[in-house]
Design brief:
Order of helices and strands: EEHEHEHEHEH
Strand order of the largest sheet: 4-3-5-6
Number of strands: 6
């Protein structure tokens, strides 16, 4: 039985999830897809994701990393990866900034909408660290550098949050598998 205290965002279960997550991660991996626009900033999400997921006991050799040119390329890559059956979960990261050429809200909406449809269609969860700041680019060099620094630091936070969400989602998926009677006897650790 999965119980959640919505006031504190804490969920617990009567099920022993550690072995079930271990089986899930024995059979499948985590895919991490990142866009390369503003790569130095988005790298912060990847690096903090790796540090946090490692601290939660997940083996780093069970994570595959993929780079795509920009945010618009993420959904197709995620769909292709989900279709392989090799991944228990997909994590995505991108910075979709207002560059003044086209409406970044359109790009962000297209990406997030596609990812939402994809996870429902494939039943492979997708954790999103796709951020869309308003007025990222500023003609004033000092303000622009302040914004770059803010998002450089903020992506570290978002990467750690994505790792926590990834771990919780894997636990949730293991609990659902247990409710459905799926799974086998397991004695391994998460890694």
């Amino acid at each position: 039985r999965l119980r959640c205290d919505w006031s504190s965002d804490v969920c617990s279960s009567d099920l022993d999830l550690e072995p079930r997550v271990a089986q899930l991660m024995h059979d499948k991996k985590i895919a991490f897809i990142q866009a390369c626009w503003h790569k130095d900033i988005v790298d912060q999400a990847r690096d903090s994701f790796v540090a946090e997921i490692d601290s939660q006991g997940y083996s780093l050799d069970r994570i595959d990393f993929f780079e795509v040119p920009g945010g618009l390329e993420i959904p197709l890559m995620a769909k292709r990866l989900a279709g392989t059956g090799a991944y228990a979960i997909i994590v995505v990261a991108a910075l979709i900034a207002d560059g003044g050429v086209y409406r970044h809200e359109f790009v962000a909406g297209a990406v997030v909408d596609a990812l939402m449809r994809l996870q429902i269609e494939t039943e492979v969860p997708i954790i999103s660290a796709v951020l869309t700041p308003h007025h990222f680019h500023d003609p004033d060099v000092h303000r622009h550098e302040d914004r770059r620094k803010f998002f450089f630091d903020h992506f570290r936070i978002k990467g750690a949050e994505a790792a926590a969400a990834c771990a919780q989602t894997l636990d949730n998926m293991a609990a659902i598998d247990a409710i459905n009677g799926g799974g086998v006897q397991i004695t391994a650790d998460r890694a």
